[in-house]
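Handoff note, outgoing to incoming analyst
You'll be picking up this chain. Sequence as last confirmed:
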Amino acid sequence: MGVVSIRSAVSVLAIFSAFATQARAEEPDSAHSMIEEESPEIFLAKATLQQYLSRVVRKDWDGARRLTHPRALAMLEKMKKRSSALRHNLAPWADPSTRLEAFRFMGAKAASPGVILVATGEDNFHTEEQGVSADDPAVYVLFRHHGTYVIGDKKSGMSLGDVSPASLDAGYPGWADKSNGSAPQTRRAQHQARR
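Most recent structure output, in case you need it:
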């Protein structure tokens, strides 16, 4: 009788385990479903943004600049020359009144070939109020540039649905490499994303 009970218990546990695993895989937020749905391009773009935002949190401004599109940096430099104060979402080093404390990815999508949009929720410390605002929405525009992704813009207060591919094509002509890059460039980008 003891052997039959143990076998029955093991069988019941195996059945429950199979159902639980299947249920978790079908959940929209499960890691399994995210892996199946996320393209390599979106993965690389999110890895780049993870590095960029981590550097912003640490106030590693040189590291953040290295992950910023050269055209965006040139635009920031022109803005700085025109006015004495630089105010732009991609210049967190120029705004000591707001400091990124934490962030989370809320979604991502390919807007067009070589252009990825990533929505975030950001917790920002505001020195004037001496408080933290939670989950401030933002959309980052990442462009494929020389085989990897770089940050081209940050659109504060927006969601993925607020940014149209047409506005990106008009606002950033020629910023993205339209091809997926060669295999060596893709491997180099994947290696850089892991660092």
